Amino acid sequence: MPYTPALALVTGASSGLGALVARRMAERGTDLVLVARRRDRLDELAGELRRRHGVTVHPVVMDLGRAGAGPALLEALAAEAPGRSPDLVVNNAGFGIYGPLVENDPEKLEAMLTLNVTALTSITRAVLEPMVRRGSGTLVNVASTGGFQPAPGLAAYVATKAYVLHLSEALWQEVKGTGVRVTALCPGPTSTEFFDVAGSEHGVLGGNVTTPEQVVDALVAALDRRRLPPYLVPDVPNRIQSVAARVLPRRLALPVAARVMRQS
């Protein structure tokens, strides 16, 4: 049976995976709260979804890379959609930095850590409590196959995604039996704006490159099932690589990862 939440909240919704998740949900008749920093893109997407699907769309322009992102987002939600709580939350906002850690710009590094880890955790805490209280809801935290293993050249980025992966897996167990579902979406290298922002045109650890459509279609198919796995790797080649990364000794995996990154 198709999963059709009444209201979905998507962060990082102005482009890439976030925008595509919004489109897929709107096709099913789901109302949306779209969160991003770029008002022009948000307004354009909101207008498109209203025209095509007749859904209610609330654009929320917000920089989530700050302390207290979760409570601030709930406050904005209460103002935009009074009396409504999201049935689906997709924590998609985030970015990466490519290159050796000692060459990363300190301010950009701090901003990445704040958005990818602190803000995501704050939002997760804020939206999960009312879900557990009412006994329903779905939370998707966007991690990465990079979270399964260290990646010299993307050291801090994949460390943030390892955090998201482990946090989500633990929450999957914590909310078991409450009626709430949690999963970490772990795409491999995907043809979005990510690598433009990160400063590299290449994928993480030479993984299989997927399209945003492949990733989001796999997510939607998983959402249609009653139970979600603790994490979801959308395609088979990256799924195999992710399993291998968890069992291969680090002292063997690290030189291979470093060599792949140098060749990228």
Automatic annotation (TrEMBL):
Alphabetical keyword list: Oxidoreductase
One Gene Ontology MF term: oxidoreductase activity
Top-level taxon of origin: Bacteria
What Pfam family does this protein match (any one)? Answer: adh_short
Please name the Gene3D superfamilies in this protein's record. Answer: NAD(P)-binding Rossmann-like Domain
**Gene Ontology CC entries for this record:** membrane
Q: Does the keyword Oxidoreductase apply?
A: yes
**Name of the featured protein:** Short-chain dehydrogenase
Q: What is the lineage of its organism?
A: Bacteria, Bacillati, Actinomycetota, Actinomycetes, Propionibacteriales
